[in-house]
UniProtKB/TrEMBL annotation, chain A:
Keywords: DNA-binding. InterPro entries: NA-bd_OB-fold (IPR012340), SOSS-B (IPR051231). This is SOSS complex subunit B1 isoform X1. GO terms for molecular function: DNA binding. GO terms for cellular component: chromosome; SOSS complex. It comes from the Eukaryota. The gene is LOC116209900. One of its GO terms (biological process) is mitotic G2/M transition checkpoint. It comes from Punica granatum (Pomegranate). The lineage of its organism: Eukaryota, Viridiplantae, Streptophyta, Embryophyta, Tracheophyta. Gene3D superfamilies: Nucleic acid-binding proteins.
From TrEMBL, chain B:
GO terms for cellular component: cytoplasm. Residues 44-455 form the Integrator complex subunit 3 N-terminal domain. It comes from Punica granatum. It comes from the Eukaryota. This is Integrator complex subunit 3 N-terminal domain-containing protein. InterPro entries: INTS3 (IPR045334), INTS3_N (IPR019333).
Length: 151, 476
């Protein structure tokens, strides 16, 4: 399933966040709005990282900013991710650009979103029929436990 | 080699409009120097050439005269396509343009006025909208100064070709002047700007009064904000005591302004295009209950710096009089206009800002005439009062109190007219079914007893049929 993004070139297919699953591949092209940003940390004492909550019309997920990405985006920014990866990083499941992918700001404000399901708050297990892919086993939390909804 | 048009932040996607202009320039760069090719371009080639010339003008100030001559030589559509490109650049890119390109944009706009290009009035309106109220940064004040200079220096051409664009200038500069003259720590640049704005507005009021009259009642609302300035005190005196001095036959007094509804496009003049997009998104896509993050982003972008709160009255005017939702939106779970206005009122820190915002909310109530006014202009205020009773009754009380304050004091000379307007508003809101009864306002125990009584007595006037005997307003 692909999300329709007004004004986005049809040549690049956009994945909806609800359809992403953990994988060791840099092949996720999607677009989302940045809802909230945590404080920046130094990962391994070397590179700055920053955990964030992002979402589209179908789902939310935790996103990890890396290096100069941490300061380049603010809540409300609409971000396009090219060749991103959704995988475990120090036991937490995050979406990120990774070394092969990239993110850029394509707009701001004009995007509707949902905060549940949160793809990072789902327990995934290897697919019994295809050990190379993961399937959803259980919902750990409907909403992000790191960035609770603003009521 | 093509010079940069924009300042691009890290991780910011390339802008499609800027990209297409740049590509056109790179494609045709060798043809942009004399001797110019004599072949007649196809319509597609013509458009690409226009894009290339525009990119050249904006990024090569030293060759701008050559580029504009080129444009004058090839133009075959009255500059319509070129001006439309300029409007797009102004709306989408002005904020990001490098300084030299901003200078060039203003210069080429003047050129377009000089040749009476098709659509130059829309270009001037786009520039007016980019001047942000309550923004005292150098870039914004520079733009304001340049646009005001343009309106004054091209006065005769504007008057002859597109006189209505002067009324847009009047609305914008009266409103900006109110912000600019309030700042106590004025520097010499701001002083010069204020003088320019005064000059333009007075020229309009003194020399082209018949045009000012066409803007309608909001001219008076804006003039009121300038009542402390000696230059405008004289205008006030003449409006009240000596209306014939304006030399507009048939003008007998302020009531003529009051009875003319100000067209919705004037309110857009104080809402920059991106803010308009964001407000319309909020009011058509964001659901009630899930609006908190969008509201917080809006506030941090547009309202957080201390002087920006004066924008609230402009936004309230836009929401009441320009953004009229469809029936589908009204019946949906999208956040209603009254809720957004209630939220905006909370940002008013200074008393005069709050009073101006409430006046903006009620302004069309005061002169409402069912035959000429629009129900949707007055709908948000009544819904805000009624819907706030259960949880935010202090809003209901303060709005109701303010409404009666307006009836009694806004303009004592026209108290009868205003009473009639407010009664007509209540009458119309009931008869058109916006609300079914005023019981919640007249009998709720949480409303101040004095206000409840006042409203009940006031509404008796409606029942007695006063509102139905609508007499013609204005000169008789």
């Amino acid at each position: 399933m692909f999300c329709s993004v007004p004004g986005f070139p049809r040549c690049m297919e956009m994945l909806c966040l609800k359809d992403i699953a953990p994988a060791a591949q840099n092949n996720i092209n999607t677009q989302f709005i940045l809802l909230d940003k945590g404080r920046a940390n130094l990962e391994g004492g070397q590179t700055k990282t920053c955990l964030a909550l992002v979402a589209d019309e179908t789902a939310a997920v935790h996103f990890q900013f890396w290096g100069d990405e941490c300061d380049a985006f603010k809540p409300g920014d609409i971000i396009r991710l090219s060749n991103g990866i959704f995988s475990y990083n120090r036991n937490s499941l995050v979406l990120r650009a990774g070394k092969k992918g990239s993110i850029e700001k394509v707009g701001e404000f004009t995007m509707a979103y949902v905060e549940t399901p949160n793809m990072s708050e789902i327990k995934w297990v290897p697919d019994p029929n295809n050990s190379r892919t993961y399937v959803q086993e259980a919902v750990i939390s409907a909403y992000s436990r790191v960035f609770p909804p603003v009521l | 080699m093509a010079a940069n048009l924009l300042r691009i932040a890290t991780h910011e996607a390339e802008n499609q409009l800027a990209l297409s202009l740049r590509q056109a320039f790179l494609l045709l760069e060798s043809n942009l120097r004399p001797p110019f090719p004599l072949t007649i371009p196809t319509s597609e080639e013509y458009q690409v050439l226009n894009c290339a010339i525009l990119y050249g003008i904006l990024t090569q100030p030293h060759h701008a005269k050559t580029h504009i001559k080129h444009l004058h030589a090839v133009v075959s559509d009255g500059y319509a396509f070129f001006v439309n490109l300029l409007v797009q650049v102004t709306n989408e890119l002005l904020e990001k343009l490098v300084d030299s390109a901003r200078n060039q944009l203003l210069w080429v706009t003047g050129e377009m006025v000089d040749v009476s290009a098709v659509g130059f009035d829309a270009l001037l309106v786009s520039l007016l909208r980019q001047v942000v109220g309550g923004d005292f940064t150098d870039g914004n004040l520079w733009l304001c100064f340049e646009v005001a200079t343009l309106f004054l220096s091209k006065w005769d051409s504007l008057l002859e070709e597109e006189p209505m664009v002067l009324t847009s200038g009047l609305y914008a500069f009266l409103r900006l002047l109110a912000d600019h003259c309030r700042v106590s720590s004025r520097n010499s640049k701001l002083e010069a700007l204020v003088r320019l704005e005064i000059e333009f507005c007075l020229k309009m009021l003194r020399e082209q009064f018949h045009l000012c009259l066409k803007v309608g009642r909001d001219v008076i609302r804006l003039l009121q904000d300038l009542h402390h300035m000696p230059e405008f005190q004289a205008v006030w005196r003449d409006l009240v005591l000596n209306p014939t001095v304006f030399g507009t036959s048939g003008f007998l007094g302020i009531a003529q302004f009051y009875s003319t509804r100000t067209s919705s496009r004037y309110f857009l003049l104080r809402i920059p295009p991106m803010m308009e997009t964001h407000l319309r998104f909020l009011l058509t896509q964001v659901k009630l209950g899930g609006q908190k993050r969008h509201q917080a982003w809006f506030a941090s972008k547009y309202l957080f710096s201390p002087d920006r709160e004066t924008l609230i009255c402009d936004i309230v005017r836009f929401i009441c009089c320009t953004h009229h939702p469809t029936k589908e939106i009204i019946q949906s779970d999208i956040i209603p206009r009254w809720a957004v206005i209630g939220w905006l009122l909370k940002f008013c820190r200074k008393n005069y800002v709050e009073a101006n915002a409430k006046l903006a909310l009620f302004y069309n109530w005061l002169f409402f005439d069912e035959r000429a006014d629009k129900l949707m202009d007055i709908e948000p205020a009544v819904l805000l009062m009624v819907c706030s009773v259960p949880k935010y009754v202090e809003i209901t009380n303060s709005l109701l109190e303010f409404l009666f304050l307006l009836v009694d004091n806004y303009d004592m000379e026209h108290k009868e007219m205003i009473t009639r307007g407010v009664l007509s508003s209540f009458n119309c809101l009931i008869s058109k079914g916006v609300i079914h009864t005023f019981d919640v306002l007249t009998s709720s125990g949480v409303i101040f007893p004095l206000l409840r009584e006042r409203l009940a007595t006031f509404l008796l006037g409606m029942k007695a049929g006063i509102a139905k005997e609508l007499r013609p307003i204005g000169p008789s």
